[in-house]
Write a structure and sequence with these properties.
Blueprint (H helix, E strand, L loop, with lengths): L1 E4 L8 H13 L11 H5 L3 H10 L1 H6 L7 H10 L3 E6 L6 H10 L6 E4 L6 H6 L4 E4 L2 H9 L4 E4 L14 E4 L2 H19 L1
Parallel strand pairs: 1-2, 1-4, 2-3, 4-5, 5-6
């Protein structure tokens, strides 16, 4: 299967690092990012948050470590015959720092697509992605709406109380993601038999 994988919050453990940097920059002591729109958490204008990220993009995208189990999970999926296509909301201008991050951490990355501030749905369709790993519930819902199963990695900012559509499976870890993809592959194999 061709599997789409988000980067920040799924492969790159960006949010703990960003939380530390944002607290220092804005002089706050926020303990948890509870909303994907971080300007709301820090009670600052979205333009101030955007300026912070643009001005510090190199460090903010290169310094985070790997999400626990992500590298091993990705390597396992590749060994099991899946193709990984990263689809990120990062901008094309952030390609260089993104690829350097993958190289430094020795994570396989043949295809990395940059949606910028656009929906990921068009790239999912264009690349015929059959399953997707995401952490932002809005993206997960949009992708699920086009019939692509989504594995939503649980995070402090995606705990909305709405019921998730059946095509979205909440996962607590990369181990859950790998197991979910194995089950999905078996279902697809049975449907083709």
């Amino acid at each position: 299967m061709r599997i789409g994988v988000d980067i920040d919050g799924v492969v790159s453990d960006s949010y703990p690092y960003w939380l530390q940097e944002l607290n220092q920059y804005f002089g706050k002591d926020i303990k948890t990012i509870t909303d994907y729109d971080m300007h709301k958490v820090f009670e600052v204008p979205s333009t101030d948050m955007n300026d912070f990220f643009v001005g510090n993009a190199e460090r903010l995208l290169f310094m985070p470590e790997i999400v626990a189990g992500a590298k091993e999970g990705i390597e396992t999926l590749i060994k099991e015959g899946h193709e990984i296509v990263y689809v990120t909301a990062r901008t094309p201008e952030e390609k260089d720092v993104t690829l350097r991050w993958f190289l430094k951490r020795e994570i396989p990355h043949e295809h990395v697509l940059f949606s910028g501030f656009n929906s990921k749905v068009s790239l999912v369709k264009e690349w015929d992605i059959e399953a997707f790993v995401e952490d932002y519930h809005v993206n997960a819902k949009q992708i699920a709406e086009i019939g692509v199963p989504v594995f939503l990695l649980t995070a402090s900012y995606n705990q909305d109380h709405e019921e998730l559509p059946g095509a979205i499976m909440r996962c607590q870890s990369w181990q859950d993601i790998v197991e979910g993809i194995r089950k999905l592959k078996d279902i697809k194999k049975d449907e083709c038999s």
